[in-house]
Every structure is written in structure tokens, then in C-alpha cells.
Design brief:
This protein is of the alpha+beta class. The chain is 40% helix and 16% strand. Pfam families: HET, Het-6_barrel.
Length: 668
């Protein structure tokens, strides 16, 4: 193939042959690109050389979003024609110096993407490639009217952030802040005390258990849902209550404390916030590979057109943005907190990985936290994480592009269960509603995270707060505090083709009735009423008066605690306040209330149906709803069963495994 290519600097047009890759000579050999100097409008001319990674000259790396597969922009590489995407072409134009060469590693050029063996081998050492680079250049895209404004705003916030960190006042940790009493002058404290007294009096004077339950109608449902998100909601509420009364997250009144960020919450700064929102909505922030590229970088620079911003400056700005936004949301009454929650999904993991160079990273940690990132090749959702796994972790997988997506996802699930001893990966299982090209027990990392994640993992901000305690086992095993399987150990065996998973289990119930209404879609005044009606009217709860009374009596103490706790969280107001409804809706959006044939109340996946069976799986901290299918079972999803979340269903310790209390079942 030949291509007629115009050259700048007076060169005549000439025909070039299509570029042909030469095989790499060793496992540590890489290709480096040299961008020859030239003016912005000149033809891009590159040189490509083979070097050994251990003795390579100084070089940089390029990180960018591949975007659409529009490889139609011609450049010259080693006097041959080479087609690149419009995104890469624009990045190269901006990176090129006018007077000197620039040596850089670019995956789309440095790796022969058509050679699967080479691609696999190069991806396996990509972490080293980025670590050895002197700098990683992050191309966000072309400049716009708002991008320069956003980058200027980030510089200003970073500068003020340094000013705070250098001051004598320190920002307390979350736990320290939450342990402080609400400052005097806050109405929340008085309301809480009154609510405690009122609730205690009301419940002590109630004549029957049923009357007490009906009088506090929503508390059963709210308590059930609230337990899942207790830590998240209580922390958020404490901060909101403080900021409502003009207190910042530092505990100092805004009007008494010369806070350098206060100026950013006047209306004149609104355009800057919008500009920043637009900058952080660019495709690069959603890429899977940025986790590795940013974490590995010794230095990184953000490029937006010709404007640049050091990554460390960006980090300083974003480190304080959460506090500013809590304060700003209270002062201005905006909804920016919702915008920031979406933005955190794009950048929080990369920032924390860059800040916290810990050795406790596991494959499950990385996969869950990068779930909602985009990848052109779905196998890269796994391969991009392998080089980030901690030194003390064991994994048998290596990148291999000759394997199918299904094989890669199966092997990842197997390694997590066997190497990590981590059965909670089943929380991410594709389930019966999956695409059908994976067993129901295998997580489908292609799916939209919000729709597929269990309730525990819906809120990424909560996960990131727990992320660096040590490892995923602490996030999933200890972060939520549930131990449905007690102290039982993980057990997993697999068929040769990894289609069937064998686990140890105990059946604890069968689904009797499912609330058909999508209560998350109801109006606030109907939300918990509908859920409560479903539970009270269930034949499994109310078939006999005695049974119904026993059921209600069983839960009344917890309802009392729930009423007090909900009143505390809402400052003594109604339990159905607007601030509480969104939390319940968030949890219930992809879930259904159900009642087991035993009369136990639970929350299950949206696909749960009558006849499904609830199991405790050895080594897994949540009960699971499984659907019988011949001699096997299909995973429907995780469940929250009231009274079954801390090993209550297990009559004995782990030693019961050996006397037959645990039964093998097959998941497909």
C-alpha cells in the first residue's frame, strides 16, 4: 500500500509505503516513539526504535482516551505511512516541540495491536513502562471556552488548599468529627433529646405490639433498609447538620473562621463550577487504563489543548473539593453534591491510587472499584488491573488476548475465590438477568456498575472511604459488618471448563411473596406505606393472629431503636423526610422487598420471585437468593434477611462443616 503524503518545509509530495512492524527481540524490549520537531501545521513525522526497558533512554508516556475507531489521519513513521485516530493526531500535534525532539511511549503506535502475542506480552509489562517514564502526559482533549477557566480554578483551589494544610488548624478524621457533639446553637441537638423522650413515652404507653408498630408504620422498612447504609447516612447527616448551622467540616463557624474557601460559594463563581464539571466529564476520566497509568506515574501532567496542569496540583485541588462542596451546598442551597457524586466515580480511584501506594491491593478490590470505567476491549477490564496487584497478593492470571472475554472473566472469578479466599465476589455475580454468555456466578465487568452492584457497593464514595484500610477483604468483609456465614471458610471448586462452581451452603428459607410494586418509583408519601402494607398483608406474616403477633413482637425492640435512630438522624422530624427518601430509593431502585415462607422479611434483587431459595454460602458474608434449575442453581443475587446477617442461622461453629451441616450445591 502506498500513500501520497504532503510534507511541510517545502518538501514535495511523495508516495510512502504502509508501515510494517518488526518483531520485538525479547520480553523486555519495547518501542519508543520520537516526535520530530516542527510547527503546528506541519506534517507529523515520527521515528520508532526498539530499546530494552532496563537500559532505555529517558522517555515520557502518553495517556489518552482512544475514542472512536476512526484511524484515518495519516502520519509518517520511519518514512512509512501510518494511520492514527483523530484524537491521537491532535495530541501529537500539541506534544510536538518546535525546536527539539520528544521521546515518548504511545500504546497505539509502540505496540503492534494486530499481533496478539506481542500485545499480551507488552500489556504484562505496561506497569513497568509507565513507572520508568519520566512523565505521563494526560491528553484530555482540545481546549474549549470553559477548559482554561476550569484549569485556572483548579490552580486557585490548590493554592488555597496548601494554605489550609500549612495553617495551625487541622481537619479531624471522619471518626473524630462524628464523635464531637453538635456545636451549641444547633437545633438538631435539642430535637434529638426531645425525640428520644417522646418516642420512649409513646412506646411505653402503647397497649399492644400491633398498635405500636402501626403507629410508627414506616420504621420496620426504614430500619431494614437503613442498616445497609447506616454508616454512610449518619456521617453525611452529621456533616449536613453542622453546615446548616454555618459550621464547616473543620468544626469552626464560617463567620468566625477566616476560611479561604468561603469566597468560592458566592454566585460569581458558579461559571467556574460549571466549567470544572465539564472538564471532569471528558472521556479520559472514565477509562479503565488510567488507574494503572496514573498510579504508576512518577509525574503526570494534564493537557487540555495547549494548557497544562500538573497532576499534583489537581490532587491538591480535589483533596479539598469535598469539604468545599459540603459547605457550599449548605450555604447556597445548590444540588452540587449530586454532581460531585457522579464526578467522584471518574477520578476518586485514580487519585487515591496515586496517593496511597499500599501493598494490600487485590484483584477484587481493583475490579470492583474500576467497575464503571470504560474499556474498548472488555478483557482489559481485568488485564489493566493485573500489574497493580500488591506484591503480597497471589494471582495466576497473565494478559492473554487469545482468550475470550468469557474465559478471562471466569479465570478472574476463580483466582479471587481460590487465591484470595474471597467468596464475596459473588456479590458482583452476573445473575439470572445476565447476558447469557457467562455463568450466573461470574461477575460481568462489562455491565453498568450502578445497575449491577449490590447495595453495599452502590455508593462509590463510601467504598473509597474504606478502600485503603488494607484490602478488598476489609472493604467487603469488615466494611459493612455483616457475617451471615459466621466464621466459615471459603470453599470453591470448579469444573474443567469453569462453567460450574461448587460451593458449600445451608438453606435458610424459600421466598414466599415478592412485592411487585417498584416502590422506588413511588411518590414520597407512598414509598414506605406501600412497603409496609406489603409486609403486614403478607399471608406468611398475617395468616394467623398468633403468628402475626409473634412476628411483630419479635421485631418491636429493633423498631424502637430504629425510631430513635431515625429521629436522631433527621433532627427529630418526620421519618419520611426528603433527605431520607433518596437513600432508600437508591438502595431499592434495583431491588424488591420479599417475605420468606418462614415469615422472615428481606430485600433481594429485582429478579427475585416466589419459589427462589435463600442460602448461606460458606465463606460469604451475605445470604444469596438462588433459583433451582434441574440439579443445579442459578445465582439471582445477594439478599439482606432480617435476623440472618450475623450467623444466626448457623447452630454451630466451623467444625459443623465436617459433620455434614454444610451441603455441596452446584452453581451454573
Amino acid at each position: 500500500m502506498t500513500l501520497t503524503t504532503p510534507f511541510g518545509h517545502g518538501h514535495l509530495a511523495m508516495e510512502l509505503r504502509h508501515f510494517q512492524y518488526q518483531s520485538l527481540s525479547g520480553s523486555s524490549t519495547i518501542r519508543l516513539v520520537t516526535i520530530l520537531p516542527g510547527e503546528r501545521i506541519a506534517q507529523l513525522i515520527l521515528e520508532l526504535e526498539h530499546v530494552d526497558l532496563d537500559s532505555a533512554p529517558r522517555y515520557e508516556c502518553l495517556s489518552y482516551a482512544w475514542g472512536q475507531n476512526d484511524h484515518d489521519r495519516p502520519i509518517t513513521v520511519n518514512n512509512s505511512s501510518f494511520l492514527v485516530s483523530s484524537t491521537l493526531h491532535m495530541a501529537l500535534e500539541h506534544l510536538r516541540h518546535e525546536q527539539r525532539k520528544r521521546k515518548i511511549w504511545i500504546d497505539a503506535i509502540s505496540i503492534n495491536q494486530a499481533d496478539l502475542d506481542e500485545r499480551s506480552a507488552q500489556v504484562a509489562i505496561m506497569g513497568e513502562i509507565y513507572q520508568n517514564a519520566t512523565r505521563v502526559n494526560i491528553w484530555l482533549g482540545p481546549a474549549t471556552e470553559s477548559s482554561e477557566q476550569a484549569m485556572t480554578f483548579l490552580r486557585m483551589m490548590a493554592t488555597d488548599g496548601r494554605r489550609i494544610s500549612a495553617s495551625s488548624e487541622t481537619i479531624p478524621a471522619d471518626e473524630e468529627w462524628l464523635s464531637r457533639p453538635i456545636p451549641q446553637g444547633s437545633s438538631s441537638n435539642a430535637h434529638t433529646i426531645l425525640s428520644h423522650k417522646a418516642l420512649s413515652k409513646d412506646q411505653n404507653n402503647s397497649s399492644t405490639v400491633s398498635a405500636r408498630l402501626i403507629r410508627s408504620s414506616m420504621t420496620v422498612v426504614e430500619f431494614l433498609i437503613m442498616q445497609i447504609f447506616f454508616r454512610e447516612y449518619s456521617k453525611a447527616h452529621a456533616i449536613k447538620e453542622a453546615t446548616k448551622n454555618d459550621f464547616t467540616v473543620t468544626g469552626f463557624p464560617i463567620h468566625d473562621y477566616d476560611h479561604p474557601h468561603r469566597k468560592y460559594f458566592t454566585n460569581e463563581w458558579e461559571p467556574h463550577w460549571h466549567a470544572l464539571d465539564e472538564l471532569l466529564a471528558r472521556p479520559w476520566w472514565g477509562r479503565t487504563w488510567i488507574v494503572q497509568e496514573v498510579w504508576s506515574a512518577s509525574e503526570a501532567v494534564l493537557w487540555c489543548g495547549a494548557a497544562t496542569l500538573r497532576w499534583k496540583t489537581f490532587q491538591k485541588a480535589m483533596h479539598y473539593s469535598e469539604a468545599w462542596d459540603d459547605m457550599g451546598d449548605a450555604i447556597k442551597g445548590t444540588r452540587r453534591a449530586q454532581h460531585w457524586e457522579a464526578l467522584r466515580r471518574r477520578y476518586t480511584l485514580a487519585i487515591n491510587l496515586a496517593n496511597e501506594r499500599v501493598n494490600g491491593r487485590t484483584l477484587s478490590t481493583l475490579l470492583v472499584n474500576s467497575w464503571d470505567r470504560a474499556s474498548t476491549d472488555p478483557r482489559d477490564k481485568v488485564f489493566a488491573m493485573l500489574s497493580l496487584i500488591g506484591k503480597n497478593e497471589v494471582v495466576s492470571m497473565v494478559p492473554n488476548y487469545k482468550k475470550s472475554m468469557g474465559q478471562v472473566y471466569r479465570e478472574a472469578a476463580r483466582d479471587i475465590m481460590v487465591k484470595q479466599g474471597q467468596m464475596d465476589v459473588l456479590l458482583a455475580a452476573s445473575g439470572v438477568a445476565g447476558s447469557g454468555d457467562l455463568p450466573s456466578w461470574v461477575p460481568d465487568w462489562r455491565c453498568e456498575a450502578v445497575a449491577k452492584k449490590p447495595a453495599l457497593l452502590v455508593n462509590r464514595h463510601l467504598m473509597m472511604k474504606l478502600y485503603f484500610t488494607d484490602s478488598m477483604s476489609q472493604v467487603v468483609l469488615n466494611g459493612h459488618g455483616y457475617r451471615a456465614a459466621g466464621n466459615s471458610k471459603a470453599f470453591a471448586s470448579f469444573s474443567d471448563d469453569l462453567d460450574v462452581l461448587t460451593v458449600l451452603s445451608q438453606q435458610i428459607g424459600r421466598v414466599g411473596e415478592v412485592c411487585k410494586a417498584n416502590i422506588a418509583a413511588l411518590r414520597d408519601e407512598e414509598f414506605t406505606d406501600r412497603a409496609f402494607d406489603f409486609i403486614i398483608q403478607s399471608k406468611f406474616v398475617s395468616a394467623k393472629t398468633q403468628r402475626r403477633e409473634a412476628y411483630l413482637r419479635k421485631h418491636i425492640d429493633e423498631q424502637k431503636d430504629a425510631s430513635i435512630l431515625l429521629a436522631t438522624l433527621t433532627g427529630g422530624g418526620k421519618t419520611r423526610e426528603d433527605r431520607w427518601a433518596p437513600t432508600m430509593r437508591n438502595i431499592m431502585r434495583h431491588r424488591r422487598l420479599f417475605v420468606s415462607q418462614n415469615g422472615d422479611m428481606g430485600i433481594g434483587p429485582s429478579d427475585v420471585q416466589a419459589g427462589d431459595i435463600v442460602f448461606i454460602i460458606s465463606g460469604c458474608n451475605f445470604p444469596f437468593v438462588l433459583r433451582p434449575s434441574g440439579d443445579n442453581f442459578a445465582v439471582v443475587g445477594e439478599a439482606y434477611i432480617y435476623g440472618q446477617m450475623n450467623g444466626e442461622s448457623l447452630a454451630g461453629p466451623w467444625s459443623r462443616l465436617w459433620d455434614g451441616a454444610w451441603k455441596e450445591i452446584l452453581l451454573h
